[in-house]
Amino acid sequence: MSFYFAYGSNINEKQMRFRMRPRVEYGISKSGTCKLIGAAILPNYELVFDVPDDHVDGAGYANIQRSKGSFVCGAIYEVDATALRLLDIYECVPVLYKRGKIKATLIKATTSIIDGIITGTKLSAIAYVGNKKPTRKGLKPTKRYLKRILRGKLHLPKDYIKKLEKLETID
Description:
Elements: E1 2-6, H1 13-19, E2 34-52, E3 60-79, H2 81-90, E4 97-109, E5 122-130, H3 143-150, H4 158-165
Antiparallel strand pairs: 1-3, 2-3, 2-4, 4-5
């Protein structure tokens, strides 16, 4: 099992569970396993929308990039190898994203103690990071995509939610 840090629409636990179903057309015949651990903060990174959405001109998907003094909030899941293979499909690895290793700090566990993991624990996790080639500056999320991210807001701090709600969209 591994930890996965979600910062875009995969913050939404319902979406994550949907994405864990088998994808026989990709050779994955069993479901992936994912367990929400809680909210986490990724220091010295910022949330950007620079991975192009091929369906809407000027729109971008979420990405993280290093930025000293900034932070990104997201959700930490415990996932198995099948879940990561399924996420690779949804994240268009290796075309749009690649797997990266990050260190996030748990800021709000779904219960007070989950298998010994408590608030304040630093976790090494996998995060999907946009590949440099397709990324473009000046992109903005669509309203629909931003709503999908905000559906996971139960896991995020209120100030961070307000920041997301104020983001300018392409539409």
